[in-house]
Target: Transmembrane regulator
Amino acid sequence: MMDAVTFRIVMNESIFLLDKRVVFDST
Model:
């Protein structure tokens, strides 16, 4: 099981990638 810090880093990375994909899809 991941610790809180690792979990937050992974969540931030996934949200960042998701935002980039949404921006690319909208254009």
Q: What stands out?
A: The first helix runs from residue 4 to 26.
